[in-house]
Design goal:
single chain; 381 residues; alpha/beta; 7-stranded mixed β-sheet; 3-stranded antiparallel β-sheet; transferase; PyrdxlP-dep_Trfase_major; transaminase activity
Length: 381
């Protein structure tokens, strides 16, 4: 099997699965229980938070464990809007956010909040000037995806952070789900107040995630209950999954030292080879994009046809965001970048992990050439 859909989810590392099993068996007690077993679980939870914070360069009290990117984005966006609504009702985001963010903003609009959706250029990048023009004294939040999950475009997060640095009443939230380990951010240096991360994008268990919440930020909780996670996120902690996620974070960040340059090398070669194909138009920008995502359009037939054809070769790629891939409409990201609807429906996404090899990509190219020729012949018959 050749798996090239890592932006949707990654296969968990064997070491992570081993950790999950051991913690499930030995540390099954509720961390909130006052007996010895509960204390042992609480200690392990504390150590996991310390390790995650050290890996990310933040304080342990600034790490909130969540169920993943969707919850993290909803908590950051809605929690800010509801927690600081006395300051105003204006929020800023972009047209190419993940559905978890866009739908959260749509719900807030129904509650009377005013949302500005920034346009993007043909490469999927916002304009700093447009952001500056959109900002108002009553702007509560600027929320942007760091690495776009469909086309890999990197937003100018550092510049945005500099602009917002002297605007303390406007919080800055970054959806860092696709950038974690592959396009690193220093939350402190940039001035990020909130950052969403997901465990299953870094070879951790599904249903895990983290929200970096800068010290001093006070969000309105989405979940009311027993006051876990410093009163920010109630509910009994999924300790085996949390410990597994933090282990995955450590492993993937160790691999990133050599893995990121390697990904860039194999991605450049993949771009060159696909660019030579007569039916292919690349949608991911050559510069200012993440090293692991490549989006391209195939002239002549819908993307799903080729996806299923490649399945016959045991090769797995995708179209748009996995959260919306079963919907028939064209990618909202590609439409926002100016692609016609027909071309947007013909787009394929390849997303790599540090585990993918050059040999796998060579096999993919050969299979891609073979299947496109077969499909074209079938259409002409």
């Amino acid at each position: 099997m050749i798996y090239l859909d890592n932006s949707a989810t990654t296969p968990p590392y064997p070491e992570v699965l081993d950790t999950y099993r051991v913690v499930s068996e030995r540390f099954f007690a509720n961390p909130s229980s006052i007996h010895k077993l509960g204390g042992e679980s609480e200690d392990l939870l504390h150590k996991s938070r310390q390790q995650a914070a050290a890996l990310l360069g933040v304080k342990e009290t600034e790490i909130i464990f969540t169920s993943g990117g969707t919850e993290g984005n909803n908590f950051a966006i809605k929690g800010t809007a509801l927690g600081y609504r006395q300051r105003g009702k204006h929020l800023i985001t972009s047209m190419i956010e993940h559905p978890a963010s866009l739908n959260a903003f749509a719900q807030l609009e129904d509650l009377g909040f005013d949302v500005t959706y920034l346009d993007v250029d043909e490469e999927g990048r916002i304009s700093i000037d447009a952001l500056k023009d959109a900002w108002r004294p009553d702007t509560l939040l600027v929320s942007l995806i760091h690495v776009n999950n469909e086309i890999g475009t990197i937003q100018p997060i550092e510049e945005i952070g500099r602009f917002l640095r002297d605007k303390p009443k406007t919080l800055f939230h970054v959806d860092h789900v696709q950038g974690l380990a592959k396009v690193p951010l220093n939350f402190k240096d940039i001035g990020i107040d909130l950052a969403t991360m997901s465990g299953h994008k870094i070879h951790g268990p599904k249903g895990t995630g983290m929200l970096y919440m800068r010290e001093g930020v006070k969000l309105a909780p989405l979940l009311a209950g027993g006051g876990q996670e410093f009163d920010h996120r109630s509910g009994t902690e999924n300790l085996p999954a949390i410990v597994g996620m933090v282990k995955a974070l450590r492993l993937v960040m160790e691999k990133a030292r050599d893995g990121v340059p390697y990904l860039q090398t194999v991605m450049n070669r993949l771009r060159q080879r696909l660019a030579q194909h007569p039916l292919v138009t690349l949608n991911t920008p050559e510069f200012g994009a993440a090293p692991h995502i490549l989006n391209f359009t195939i002239e002549g037939f819908r993307a799903e046809v080729l996806i299923h054809a490649l399945e016959e070769e045991d090769i797995y790629v995708s179209t748009k965001s996995a959260c919306a891939s079963k919907a028939s409409e064209a990618s909202h990201v590609l439409l926002a970048c100016g692609l016609p609807e027909k071309e947007a429906k013909q787009a394929i996404r390849i997303s790599l992990s540090f585990e993918n090899t050059q040999e796998e990509l060579d096999i993919f190219i050969a299979s891609f050439d073979k299947k496109t020729k077969e499909l074209m012949k079938a259409m002409e018959a």
